[in-house]
Write a structure and sequence with these properties.
The complex is a heterodimer of chains A (262) and B (161).
Chain A lengths: L2 H8 L2 E8 L3 H14 L3 E7 L5 E4 L5 H4 L2 H6 L4 E3 L7 E3 L3 E9 L10 H15 L6 E4 L2 E4 L2 E10 L3 E9 L4 H4 L17 H4 L9 H13 L3 E4 L18 E2 L2 H14 L1
Parallel strand pairs in A: 1-2, 1-11, 3-4
Antiparallel strand pairs in A: 2-6, 3-5, 4-12, 6-10, 7-8, 8-9, 9-10
Chain B lengths: L1 H16 L5 H9 L6 E2 L4 E6 L2 E6 L1 H7 L2 E5 L6 E2 L4 E7 L2 E6 L4 E6 L2 H4 L3 H4 L8 E5 L3 H4 L4 H13 L2
Antiparallel strand pairs in B: 1-2, 2-3, 3-9, 4-6, 5-8, 6-7, 8-9
Helix pairs in contact in B: 2-3
């Protein structure tokens, strides 16, 4: 047996699911299902989503976070996801990487937000080695002082998920659907969206990023490719699905709330 | 009560005197279990008084979670099941589920947490209580840790990472 095979045997197993253009709602439903009903570790990479979509964190209130009228007029879907964190607008240019881990398979990481965040920062530090200015800053991935990756987590009894949306590229017009949130990182310094974020494509090739991410994960886990069609055999049983698309009625209520407070 | 007031005192003074409070001594304070409470290894506490048990998360837990910005609580008159989730808190960028240490009927939830989720950080054993339960199986309380055992558990858990 070769030395590399011996090394692999000591690493915990992680299933790798590679998607392309999967709708973000479907991706989030998959993640929530795997977090709650599977006992395996998972890495999900989605190379873009199909249509521009707004995704809010668990506690997000539409009237506070989005410009409801244009969102409704332009029929932009709005999702509330099962993880914490802020609001993003994603599209075909966005890259998604999600890591679902059993806490016992990452024993040097305590199942708390800051510990998981630090671990992720170290992993992506490998991905962006040689790229100037990369760091985990407060809870964002940045080049210098400009954010290109937003993170969110959900921690349950013995497992956690850390998922990231990477701004490969973005349409400035889409940023106009988002309000300036009330809770912002200190380093943002009152900058609006276009001054605060940057495009990952200015720093690394798309395929290079995906392959380096898979490699970095493979340094800590033995990766096994799993096709989407085979997921049912890994995720059995019912669970409370909390990720959902907001209804028109909810958006209308949010708009009414905004109008009242204006 | 001592740990809560000490934790609050540390929070007030930390910006001034952080330099002479080592991370170890701060975490020891948050790790100390209060007398009169029982503890789960998922860092919830239970105060059993008569036919009612009050449940919240410990100072150790709130310290590790960070600033709590949102609390999701169950409806009153629903049931809690030992070691199953009854709600969640949001802190930093994470939702973290909260597990019930005991089973029973949820007779009251702390509605103040909706407007003031930070009570969990500032007063985890008093104003930051989360639910009150009528225990269905009082024997479940016996399997929980006492304050000394919980203190040791926290120290060992932190030392292992």
């Amino acid at each position: 047996m070769s030395l590399s095979r011996v090394k692999d045997l000591r690493l915990p197993l992680m299933n790798l699911v590679r998607l392309k253009g999967t709708p973000i709602l479907e991706q989030l439903h998959l993640e929530e299902r795997l977090l709650r009903t599977s006992s395996d570790n998972w890495c999900i990479v989605n190379d873009g989503t199909n249509v521009p979509t707004i995704v809010m964190g668990m506690s997000g209130k539409p009237c506070q976070l989005i410009e409801v009228r244009p969102v409704m007029e332009d029929r932009i879907p709005v999702i509330k996801r099962f993880t914490g964190g802020g609001t993003v607008i994603v599209d075909k240019s966005t890259l998604f990487v999600s890591l679902i881990c059993n806490k016992d398979d990452v024993p040097n990481v305590q199942p708390y937000p800051r510990s998981v965040m630090a671990w992720s920062g170290s992993l992506y530090g490998e991905v962006f080695k040689g790229v100037n200015g990369f760091q985990l800053r407060e809870n964002d991935y940045v080049f210098g002082d400009r954010k290109f990756g937003g993170n969110a987590q959900s921690i349950i009894k013995s497992r956690w998920i850390h998922h990231t949306s990477f701004l490969w590229d973005y349409d400035v017009r889409n940023m106009a659907y988002l309000k300036l949130p009330s809770r912002v990182p200190q380093y943002r310094l009152e900058r609006d969206h276009t001054e605060f974020v940057c495009r990952m494509k200015d720093y690394i090739e798309r395929s290079d990023f995906i392959e380096k991410t898979v490699k970095a994960v493979g340094n800590q886990f033995t990766l096994k490719q799993v096709n989407l069609e085979d997921i049912d055999s890994y995720a059995k049983g019912g669970y409370l699905k909390t990720t959902r698309l907001l209804t028109m009625e909810e958006l209308e209520e949010a708009m009414a709330g905004t109008t009242q407070n204006a | 009560m001592w740990a809560s007031s000490t934790a609050n005192a540390l929070k007030l003074s930390s910006s001034v005197s952080k330099s002479h409070l080592s991370p170890f001594s701060i975490s020891r304070c948050f790790s100390t279990g209060l007398e009169g409470l029982k503890y789960a290894n998922s860092h919830e506490w239970v105060k059993h008084e008569g036919s009612v048990a009050t449940i919240g998360i410990t100072a150790h837990a709130q310290d590790h979670l960070g600033e709590v910005v949102f609390v999701e609580l169950p409806e009153e008159n629903t049931s809690a099941t030992k070691e199953k989730s009854f709600g969640a808190v949001e802190s930093v960028k994470a939702t973290s589920e909260i597990l019930s240490p005991i089973s029973g009927e949820i007779i009251e939830v702390n509605k103040k947490l909706t407007e003031s989720p930070g009570l969990i950080n500032s007063s985890p054993y008093e104003d930051g209580w989360m639910i009150k339960v009528k225990p269905s199986s009082p024997a479940e309380l016996e399997s929980l840790m006492g304050p000394k055992e919980y203190t040791k558990f926290c120290e060992e858990e932190d030392a292992a990472h």
